[in-house]
């Protein structure tokens, strides 16, 4: 797949346009329209810094002028590795203004991952902070550039902060001010020539490259077009009832698809609302911002839920403005879902989706049992869903099977991954998600696990997520991950890594507890290991590979 190849059929493309899903606008043009419609409204907040829609539009132009001065234009890929700062949004829209393609990297990525992204995408530039969380990203960039050699490494590194003295390192502040356009040029009402909103990009062009969210191996690149990704954000925004009064708090990494467009940053901006950037995900930081900025919507991953519930119990914060709290990125245990809403005084919305496309949301008026026990239903009427067995044939509603999907915002091929694409998609274009789900008659999906997250213990198949959810019902266990490790006798044995309030129960006590909960005896973990915390991947999922490796090193 090339960066500009359209992979939907002509008939599908026509149908999506006729339905209004694809609107034929680039993100550069969308920001221009938002500035015209909401010019004086606050669009973006980061600490004591604020940008109106008119400000954001003008900043995108300034950044675009600087990027053009560096020779960056339509189709160029640029790795953006920034923490939760407003500069991510400024850079992103600046890149859209010149028709370039941001590659969303996570702050936690290091040389191996960034080198991979640079190599696969062919990135001409990277955007990084000088330092963040005690790590020097300039040193990372020096290492990546040295590893790839002249002519194959990014020719430019834009640094938010101090760029140092390295050749080819440019200050973001210098970039946005060196060739700043005149005020007349940045006026939202100014008459502009063709291409000034988007560097000549076409709405069918790839607008950005997201990363696959697996917990093993190097990430694959996911091409998203202007048309399909805008619909992704708009469809989620509609389900979430976003409007000009929405104040969205970006708690999770801002480059994470969940945070950016489900509905997230983009959905909020397309609705005329306000985005508030949280520098870290701690409940203390987030609650202070909710109180100060009157936040109405935010998004969490399950590992954060217990921390937020415990902090809310202190009663020290005014969370009265919060209307909806989304939880996604992994399955939210039902027990936690039932506690979260009352703890925060907000409606819980479960989110099950993927950077590859399909997004499922519980609805704001769904009964409590559906909200707490399912992971939602598709946001688009044109999302096509199949749940199939091992033979590839559809299974009845209520039966578990692999989820296959296609639709107006689900990719048809990973970027520069032809071999993988041959197995990741069916001949008729359905994406094989690897998720095992059950579909209810209402259309809601219940995530059972991952095909690759099944543990084969002596021929017995164990879905890790099922056991993990039941482990969390033990009064001493606050977080859990079930991992399969090699075993000469059984093929695999199961190890439960648990975070506990006090002393951990032993394997015998855990087995008794699970038996009381109705689980088959073979699903009880062979070993229980107490840990102080569960390691997370760059996108906030439990890193089971790391846990297994740590166990094998003991």
TrEMBL record:
It comes from Streptomyces lienomycini. Residues 466-541 form the AMP-binding enzyme C-terminal domain. Residues 177-198 are annotated as: Disordered. The lineage of its organism: Bacteria, Bacillati, Actinomycetota, Actinomycetes, Kitasatosporales. This is (2,3-dihydroxybenzoyl)adenylate synthase. Pfam families: AMP-binding, AMP-binding_C. Gene3D superfamilies: 3.30.300.30, 3.40.50.980, Luciferase, Domain 3 (2.30.38.10). Residues 31-415 form the AMP-dependent synthetase/ligase domain.
């Amino acid at each position: 797949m090339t960066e500009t190849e359209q992979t939907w059929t002509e008939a599908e493309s026509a149908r999506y346009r006729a339905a209004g899903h694809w609107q034929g606008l680039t993100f550069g043009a969308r920001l221009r329209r938002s500035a015209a419609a909401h010019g004086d409204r606050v669009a973006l907040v980061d600490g004591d810094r604020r940008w109106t829609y008119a400000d954001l539009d003008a900043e995108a132009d300034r950044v675009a002028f600087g990027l053009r001065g560096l020779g960056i234009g339509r189709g160029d890929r640029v790795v953006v590795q920034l923490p939760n700062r407003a500069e991510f949004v400024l850079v992103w829209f600046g890149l859209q203004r010149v028709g370039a393609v941001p590659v969303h990297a996570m702050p936690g990525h290091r040389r191996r991952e960034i080198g991979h992204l640079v190599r696969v995408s062919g990135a001409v530039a990277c955007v990084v902070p000088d330092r963040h969380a005690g790590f020097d990203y300039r040193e990372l960039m020096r290492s990546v550039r040295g590893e790839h050699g002249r002519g194959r490494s990014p020719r430019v590194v834009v640094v938010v902060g101090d760029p140092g003295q390295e050749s080819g390192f440019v200050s973001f502040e210098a970039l946005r001010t060196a060739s700043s356009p005149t005020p007349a040029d940045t006026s939202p009402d100014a008459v502009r020539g063709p291409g000034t909103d988007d560097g000549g990009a076409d709405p069918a062009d790839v607008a950005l490259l997201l990363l696959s969210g697996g917990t093993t191996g190097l990430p694959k690149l996911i091409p998203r077009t202007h048309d399909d990704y805008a619909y992704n954000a708009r469809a989620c925004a509609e389900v979430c009832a976003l409007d000009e009064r929405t104040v969205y708090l970006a708690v999770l990494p801002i480059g994470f698809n969940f945070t950016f467009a489900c509905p997230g940053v983009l959905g909020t901006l397309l609705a005329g609302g306000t985005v508030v950037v949280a520098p870290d995900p701690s409940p203390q930081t987030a609650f202070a911002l909710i109180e100060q900025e009157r936040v109405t919507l935010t998004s969490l991953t399950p590992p954060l839920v217990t921390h937020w519930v415990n902090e809310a119990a202190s009663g020290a914060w005014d969370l009265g403005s919060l209307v909806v709290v989304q939880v996604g990125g992994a399955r939210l245990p039902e027990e936690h879902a039932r506690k979260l809403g009352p703890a925060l005084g907000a409606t819980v919305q479960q989110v099950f989706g993927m950077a590859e496309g399909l997004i499922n949301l519980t609805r704001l008026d769904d009964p409590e049992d559906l909200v707490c026990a399912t992971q939602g239903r598709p946001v688009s009427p044109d999302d096509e869903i199949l749940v199939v067995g091992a033979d590839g044939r559809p299974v009845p509603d209520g039966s578990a099977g692999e989820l296959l999907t296609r639709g107006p915002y689900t990719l048809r091929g990973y970027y520069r991954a032809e071999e993988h694409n041959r197995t990741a998609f069916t001949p008729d274009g359905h994406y094989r998600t690897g998720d095992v789900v059950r579909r209810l008659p209402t259309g809601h999906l219940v995530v059972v696990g991952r095909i690759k997250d099944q543990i084969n213990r002596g021929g017995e198949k164990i879905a890790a997520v099922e056991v993990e959810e039941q482990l969390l019902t033990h009064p001493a266990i606050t977080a859990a991950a079930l991992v399969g490790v090699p075993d000469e006798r059984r093929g695999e044995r199961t190890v439960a890594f648990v975070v506990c309030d006090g002393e951990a129960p032993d394997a015998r006590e855990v087995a008794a507890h699970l038996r009381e909960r109705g689980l088959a005896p073979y699903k009880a973990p062979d070993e229980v290991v107490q840990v102080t915390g569960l390691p997370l991947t760059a996108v906030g999922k439990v890193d089971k590979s790391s846990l297994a490796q740590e166990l094998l090193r003991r």
